[in-house]
Amino acid sequence: MLLLLLLLGSGQGPRQVGAGQTFEYLKREHSLSKPYQGVTEGGRLSDMKGKNRWWLQLSEDLWWLSEQVGVEEYELIYFLLIGVGTGSSSLWNLMGNAMVMTQYIRLTPDMQSKQGALWNRVPCFLRDWELQVHFKIHGQGKKNLHGDGLAIWYTKDRMQPGPVFGNMDKFVGLGVFIDTYPNEEKQQEAQKRRYSPGVQRVFPYISAMVNNGSLSYDHERDGRPTELGGCTAIVRNLHYDTFLVIRYVKRHLTIMIDIDGKHEWRDCIEVPGVRLPRGYYFGTSSITGDLSDNHDVISLKLFELTVERNPEEEKLHRDVFLPSVDNMKLPEMTAPLPPLSGLALFLIVFFSLVFSVFAIVIGIILYNKWQEQSRKRFY
Ligand SMILES: [Ca+2]
């Protein structure tokens, strides 16, 4: 029975990655592929919010429970519940102009001013994971006359439309952007300013950003002020499949692309010391403005990576509550100052008084001395 549950819980069998001690397990509840069953419209917002809260609570309870009973994979219990039908049949929600087709999910069609998103309903509590994104960006627009691209998210909030590739600004978590329109370059061009060849970027450009909710994505500058890294990725109108992978292992974030039709991963971004909380949501979103493209997602596959940690790493990799990146200063969230305790207030008043009295005494002494001297000079 336990074995059966384990098999159910781990989806496909383990697949060894590389020569090391890393195994990957496909996580069905965070994955999406053809045929697109279990994808539903966002529904009424009020309705959604209630359901989400309930769902998050359920997942948190299960996680807690699995920790208590010492079961590493909380999915064990989770799948059991799904199996008896208490869970939702829809693991993914569509939003805005996104549409389910037979061969793909279209986030936006090649039309102006559209925005769409696709969000996983199940928060992810895995520590080490890899998300493989099979996508396709194509349209009628000529070079640099198309936009705006698509984003892949691992964030605290879901289903929040906004200006950052169709998602909210000041998000909390990780955003990976496949930006197809060079806003900054075009602006410079309009102002007849020239870029030095070393600085100019070739678009489409992939970049990543970690946010604790205090940073704004600067659309006009293609996110340059807040990016962790990036690379050029010529991904439009290709006749072969294009993939992007986000790997998060031991707080090391790696983004690789397979866009040349060679079935090989090519490095794009690598950042150590990225602290991401657990329990966030995977999603993808896209937006078009004056310029447009078809932004299609063919599949999203999330793998759990099992890696060994020594006791020291276990201590170092403890859970965090806000996203951050080591050696990179994110502005603090604007939290109100903690109220002063009674004692602190008393000490501040007391020492202010002592200092004032001291200053007055010194002042009087100096004044007297000065008067004495001037009197002496007078005689
Ligand atoms: Ca852009």
Automatic annotation (TrEMBL):
Keywords: Membrane, Signal, Transmembrane, Transmembrane helix. Its main location: membrane. InterPro entries: ConA-like_dom_sf, Intracellular_Lectin-GPT, Lectin_leg. The chain crosses the membrane at residues 343-367. The keyword Transmembrane applies. The lineage of its organism: Eukaryota, Metazoa, Chordata, Craniata, Vertebrata. It is found in: Membrane. Residues 1-19 form the signal peptide. It is a single-pass type I membrane protein. Residues 68-305 form the L-type lectin-like domain. It comes from the Eukaryota. This is VIP36-like protein isoform X2. It comes from Galeopterus variegatus.
